[in-house]
């Protein structure tokens, strides 16, 4: 039986009332729990009281991981929330102990205790009666309790600050937030940011080329990516979109806010923001080595070492290194990645923590992915998934280095000053030949002939400087405590793009070996972009009643944009500039607590997003302006281990942009006014039963122009994302299994010049995993993707290009924890 956790209020304890959602979850989970029992479990009599001693050997380290291992060895079920154990450590357990003794030792000094629900089930909760010394949490220095997901085994998080910069729970935040935790990434073998976002509710992915991903949410591209809350920009037109190639080896979790985030991220981007939260140094030593192999000669290895450098623990460090090499299902298309991450963290004083680090990623690709979608007669192509759209000698290489720092200073009255900065340096090089994407001509069905683009050399240098400073804390007004935050952030984006030697011959798509590099090395394109964003913001969370909360805020922004597009071999040269000063972006949100577990919310923010793309005349398109409305319900159950939400939203915009064509390889765009996006999201994530983690969502999003005609038809109208894992009990306690599916509704693009249309009917893809832990140190994980070997396009786009999803694949990984 799955019982609710005892809540603590002062000296009194009580069991919270079961909400309708809670009752439904309990009923469904009980049925699944019965199915999960082994034959011996199903026929066994109720277990007798566990009082005998057993021998345990559990190493010191993260408390969450130690509790999970202890429960398996003790033959009991233990459940706890990520917000309880995040950042906490334990000295371990060695020797013969009873279950109660083992819990007591592992939890010693953490301010937590294990509450026995029945003979085989325990809850971990805040101790109801203890002294101040025992309540002091053992945490990662400088990290808010509940914000770290590593070592918790959880599919949700205790706190998040991406939407408002204030450390609130998901239930307390009046916007849609999804979190992909460290455990979720491990379970599904999500190795890249696009792997993660493909599993995220309400997010869809398209592409412009092999390594250029367009991430959309609520009718708009997500162009703001944060590293530990420090904002960077991504501009599609520059083609250097390195944030979308990030490897997940160095990250603890990914937070995705859907909807306008103008308060925190500068320009009010209506799609949302992705916050990539890096791993932090730990107070105790921990290390792991892992490797995996898979289909198409996939090989990946990773090492992660963390711990104190001084006996006092006041200086800590972490080093992560990863290497991946693989071919792919596309002929002559392979990938290679090298990742290195180092970070130092120091307690400069009892109230000051500083962190400095560097992360580096080298990403290199040989060949070209994707296939042309249309024949010249207007019919859709149906090439095999192995068909290559480029020459084998084609090469794309990215070198990305981030230098970052953070300083947290505790102030009087529980106020805190935070300063963070990030400097990104990117070098991109391209040399190759591929099908020239165009919606006005296609592949000759009889001969296989098609227009190709050959480039000798494309060199891009990009730098981004970002700074975030804020001070936040509580204040008292009319006898109640409230929160306030005041901050400043700055971004400078600089991108220099030079192309040399190009030609556009007719080639046979099945004979790429006959295509050679172009003979000329003329300077054919200069494309330079420079932007500066800066702004001041302030927000407050007012609590006029115990169950009613109001968030009010505003941002004042300055924005400068400069672009130069020139073709040195001709007289074409266009300069575009745009600037604004003192642009105000208001934000408002209300949250009403129906019960301690459930709340209703509504929020509003203006949209102001300067465009970084130009029209056919080279003039930058005026900024997108509009409004974003959202309202919904949120639930936080089982002491934060399970989060649920339902949201409806409306986004209104003028000057939204869409690609209209290209001149000499440079895309130009047009503005669309009166765009309106309406939709809703449903999401459930966390632990619904001890050992059973679930993530499920359904999203609907429809964008229309002022005439009511649907826009963005090349993105699905509806999406479903389902994934769950179950960790067995008893004799199978070392086994975890998981399965899930992704479903997208129909996508289509009409090509007027070709008098044809490309479509991808609705489809679903099923995945599964199994993990077995041999002992405290060694585990093996098998992941199988696309179990039924579905052939489908992950993306179709206006350039008449399509990208196939990966065929059935299996990877086997081993991990050794020291």
Which properties best describe this structure?
818 residues, mainly beta, Phage tail protein beta-alpha-beta fold, Maltoporin, Chain A, 2 domains, 22-stranded antiparallel barrel, 5-stranded mixed β-sheet, 9 helices, 48 strands, disordered N terminus
Q: Which helices and strands, and how do they pair?
A:
Blueprint: E1 7-9, E2 12-14, H1 20-36, H2 39-43, E3 54-58, E4 61-62, H3 63-74, E5 77-79, H4 82-85, E6 89-90, E7 93-97, H5 99-106, E8 112-118, E9 121-126, H6 132-135, E10 176-180, H7 182-188, H8 193-198, E11 203-209, E12 212-217, E13 220-221, E14 224-227, E15 230-233, E16 251-258, H9 262-265, E17 272-278, E18 286-294, E19 298-308, E20 315-327, E21 334-349, E22 352-366, E23 371-372, E24 395-410, E25 416-435, E26 449-477, E27 480-503, E28 506-508, E29 523-545, E30 548-566, E31 573-593, E32 598-609, E33 624-637, E34 642-654, E35 656-663, E36 666-672, E37 675-689, E38 692-704, E39 710-711, E40 718-727, E41 735-744, E42 747-751, E43 756-760, E44 763-773, E45 778-785, E46 793-796, E47 801-804, E48 809-817
Parallel strand pairs: 5-9, 14-17
Antiparallel strand pairs: 1-2, 3-7, 4-6, 8-9, 10-16, 11-12, 12-13, 14-15, 16-17, 18-19, 18-48, 19-20, 20-21, 21-22, 22-24, 23-47, 24-25, 25-26, 26-27, 26-28, 27-29, 29-30, 30-31, 31-32, 32-33, 33-34, 34-37, 35-36, 37-38, 38-39, 38-40, 40-41, 41-44, 42-43, 44-45, 45-48, 46-47
Helix pairs in contact: 3-5
């Amino acid at each position: 039986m799955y019982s609710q956790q005892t809540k603590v209020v002062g000296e009194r304890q009580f069991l919270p009332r079961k909400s309708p959602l809670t009752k439904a979850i309990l009923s469904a989970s009980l049925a699944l729990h019965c199915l999960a029992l082994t034959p011996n479990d199903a026929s066994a009599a109720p277990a007798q009281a566990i009082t005998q001693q057993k021998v345990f050997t559990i190493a010191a380290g993260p408390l969450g991981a130690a509790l999970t291992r202890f429960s398996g060895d003790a033959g009991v079920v233990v459940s706890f929330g990520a917000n309880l154990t995040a950042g906490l450590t334990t000295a371990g357990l060695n020797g013969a102990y009873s279950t109660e003794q083992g819990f007591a030792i592992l939890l010693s000094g953490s301010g937590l205790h294990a509450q026995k629900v029945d003979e085989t089930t325990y809850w971990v909760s805040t101790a109801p009666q203890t002294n101040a010394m025992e309540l002091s949490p053992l945490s990662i220095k400088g990290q808010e309790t509940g914000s770290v997901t590593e070592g918790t085994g959880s599919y949700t998080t205790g706190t998040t600050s991406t939407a408002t910069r204030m450390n609130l729970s998901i239930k307390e935040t009046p916007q849609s937030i999804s979190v992909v935790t460290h455990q979720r990434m491990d379970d599904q073998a999500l190795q890249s940011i696009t792997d993660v976002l493909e599993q995220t509710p309400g997010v869809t992915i398209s592409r412009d080329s092999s390594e250029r991903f367009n991430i959309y949410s609520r009718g708009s591209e997500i162009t703001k990516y944060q590293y530990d809350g420090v904002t960077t920009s991504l501009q599609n037109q520059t083609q250097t979109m390195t944030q979308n190639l990030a490897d997940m080896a160095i990250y603890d979790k990914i937070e995705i806010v859907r909807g306008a985030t103008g308060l925190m991220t500068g320009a009010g981007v209506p799609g949302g923001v992705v916050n990539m939260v890096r791993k932090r140094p730990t107070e105790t030593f921990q290390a792991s080595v892992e490797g995996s192999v898979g289909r198409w000669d996939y090989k990946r290895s990773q090492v992660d070492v963390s711990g104190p450098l001084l006996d006092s623990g006041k200086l800590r460090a972490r080093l992560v290194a990863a290497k991946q090499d693989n071919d792919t299902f596309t002929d002559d298309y392979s990938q290679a990645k090298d990742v290195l991450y180092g970070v130092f963290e120091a307690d400069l004083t009892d109230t000051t923590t500083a962190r400095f680090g560097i992360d580096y990623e080298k990403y290199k690709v040989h060949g070209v992915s994707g296939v042309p979608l249309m024949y010249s007669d207007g019919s859709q192509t149906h090439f095999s998934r192995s068909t290559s759209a480029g020459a084998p000698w084609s090469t794309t290489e990215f070198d990305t280095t981030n230098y970052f720092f953070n300083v947290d200073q505790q102030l009087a009255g529980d106020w805190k000053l935070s300063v963070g900065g990030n400097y990104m340096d990117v070098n991109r090089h391209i040399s190759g030949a591929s099908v020239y994407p165009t919606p006005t001509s296609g592949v000759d069905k009889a001969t296989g002939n098609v227009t190709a683009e050959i480039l000798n050399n494309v060199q891009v240098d990009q730098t981004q400087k970002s700074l975030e400073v804020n001070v936040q804390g509580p204040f008292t007004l009319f006898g109640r405590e409230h929160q306030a935050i005041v901050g400043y952030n700055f971004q400078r984006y600089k991108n220099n793009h030079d192309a040399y030697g190009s030609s556009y011959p007719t080639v046979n798509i099945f004979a790429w070996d006959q295509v050679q590099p172009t003979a000329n090395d003329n300077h054919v394109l200069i494309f330079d972009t420079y932007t500066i964003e800066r702004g001041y913001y302030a927000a407050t969370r007012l609590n006029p009643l115990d169950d009613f909360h109001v968030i009010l805020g505003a941002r004042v922004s300055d924005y400068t944009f400069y672009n130069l597009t020139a073709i040195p071999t001709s007289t074409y040269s266009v300069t575009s500039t745009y600037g604004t000063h003192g642009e105000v972006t208001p934000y408002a949100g209300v949250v009403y607590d129906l019960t301690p577990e459930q709340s209703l919310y509504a929020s509003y923010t203006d949209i102001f997003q300067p465009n970084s793309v130009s029209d056919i005349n080279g003039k930058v398109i005026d900024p997108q302006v509009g409004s974003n409305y959202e309202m919904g319900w949120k639930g936080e159950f089982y002491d934060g281990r399970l989060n649920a939400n339902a949201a409806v939203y409306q986004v209104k915009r003028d000057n939204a942009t869409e690609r209209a064509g290209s001149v000499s390889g440079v895309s130009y765009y047009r503005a669309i006014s009166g765009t309106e996006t309406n939709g809703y999201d449903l999401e459930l994530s966390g632990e619904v039963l001890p050992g059973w983690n679930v993530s499920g969502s359904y999203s609907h999003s429809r964008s229309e122009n002022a005439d009511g005609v649907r826009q963005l038809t090349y993105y699905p109208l509806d999406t479903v994302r389902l994934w769950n894992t179950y960790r067995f009990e008893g004799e199978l306690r070392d086994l975890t299994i998981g399965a899930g599916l992704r479903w997208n509704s129909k996508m289509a693009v009409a090509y007027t010049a070709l008098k044809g249309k490309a479509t991808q009917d609705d489809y679903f893809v099923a995945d599964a995993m199994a993990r077995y832990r041999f002992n405290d140190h060694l585990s093996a994980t098998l992941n199988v993707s696309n179990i039924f070997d579905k052939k489908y396009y992950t993306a179709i786009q206006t350039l008449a290009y399509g990208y196939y999803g990966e065929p059935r694949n299996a990877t086997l990984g081993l991990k050794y924890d020291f």
